[in-house]
Write a structure and sequence with these properties.
By secondary structure, the chain is α/β, with parallel strands linked by helices. 38% of the residues lie in helices and 16% in strands. A 6-stranded mixed sheet has the order 1-3-2-4-5-6, sandwiched between helices.
């Protein structure tokens, strides 16, 4: 789907976010919430699990991809599920340091336990309305992009 620059990246080093989401409505909602939350890091969007891994491994059309500072990963994806993507990321010594935030509509205990069993950094159930979505994204931005130190930030 490409890149959606969200304002200036000044002061953010080369931080980028990777959003792995197949639902165009949810992509729009998340990007709008990022704008409302004033997230300045570029957000790259891929629509399925196979594309996500190609992006992260700089394969196919992604040879110039940067390593994202944070991955926002849906679980219900075509071609390769979010569970499979998470498993592969956390098994790969070159990728496993990247924090993965599961952002899913699922409220299933099995999905939650599976995500943490495969070393997800956190699990967030997608909120039902825009205001709550903005709050979630602001919290993600404050914690993951301002408070903690990430290995991919410079």
């Amino acid at each position: 789907m490409g890149m959606m620059p969200l304002g200036s990246t000044e002061g953010w080093g080369s931080a980028e976010l990777l959003l792995v989401e197949d639902n165009p409505g949810d992509v729009r909602l998340i990007l709008e919430a990022c704008r409302e939350a004033n997230i300045r890091a570029p957000v790259r969007v891929v629509a399925d699990g196979v594309e996500a891994l190609a992006y992260l491994r700089r394969e196919a059309g992604y040879v110039n991809a940067k390593t994202p500072a944070l991955i926002l990963l849906d679980l219900n994806l075509p071609r390769k599920s979010g569970h499979e993507v998470l498993e592969e990321i956390k098994r790969d010594p070159d990728l496993r340091r990247i924090p993965v935030v599961i952002l899913s509509i699922s409220r299933s205990k099995e999905d939650l336990v599976s995500a943490y069993s495969h070393h997800a950094n956190c699990f967030i159930t997608k909120p039902p309305n825009m205001d709550q979505f903005i709050d979630v994204v602001k919290g993600l931005e404050a914690f993951w992009l301002r408070i903690v130190q990430l290995p991919t930030q410079r």
